[in-house]
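DM from R.C. (forwarded with permission)

"hey, sorry to bug you on a friday — could you get me a structure for this? deadline for the figure draft is monday and I only need the backbone to look sensible"
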Amino acid sequence: MSELDHNESQKFPCVIPTIIDDYNRTKGYYKTFFKYLPINEIVLIGPKNVGEIASSDISSGLFDDNKVSYIDENELVPIIAVKAIYDDLKKNATQSNPSSVHWYYQQYLKMAYSQICQTDYYLCWDSDTIPLKKIEMFSDDGKPFLDTKPDGNYSYFLTIERLFGFNKIIEKSFISEHMLFSKKYMLDMIVDIENTHFTGDVFYEKITSCLGNDNLAIGFSEFETYGTWIGMKYPAEYKLRNWKSFRNLSFFVNINDFNQEDIDWLSKDYHAVTFEKYQETEPSLTELFRNKRYREKLSSEQFFLSVLESGALGEYSNGTIKYNGLIAPI
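My reply, with the result:
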């Protein structure tokens, strides 16, 4: 018997750290979240302008009777505390392209939610990702899923090794645009982090310090860290699942032009799609994506793999594509 009372029928909050631009891009799909995910609430975490617009949308009935709430991000994690350590490290960074402090900050917000969560589990969901069909978060035997995808970034594991002494434990990655966290285990992991020798008193200060000036470029993943920590300490508590998502859909279609025919085709192969805001839609790829002959002959997964292997999105290898000097997971 697990020490947690797993109940596959339970519902939990869906936590979405977001900024105003991302919120406005995807808020029209929130009713779909309630349709396809086993959630009882969407909790937005962001700056005050997100709360202001969300409050107006809630009052206007945009989300019908579905519960959407807001938390001021600085009430969970003060950005000034993270920025102070990050800025000192950045002054002597040995990498030419350190990730933004805000990229790390939004990860800390997901972790910090465990400290106020009222349920055994909470689902963190990337603000630019949309579910395509009904998705269970527990297996038939009542265990929560840890979803996995291909990923080629190993810099996360330098930080994980520094924090816990753990190396990569599975071939794939735990980064899948979402994660179902156990409140209990997240709190336990935070205690382990706060017991390390790194500078700071609380977990987000310790993690930032742990990055050092040599690993500021994509140096931490809350999903990869939690999945690895669970796998090393409580391997029987979760069940691994192969998660399939279309990560780079913005290349093929603008989110404002996404339609039901697209959803019907994609949902046969994928759980979710992601609209990365830094990716521009290419008309030639839209024409291919909407080609009726291709949709009749190919599944959406076959289509995407064909495009990847053609090099149309850039160099494709080990779960990533390289384009315009950037590396993006698929």
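R.C.: lifesaver. The radius of gyration is 20 Å.
me: no worries. DSSP finds 14 helices and 13 strands in the chain.
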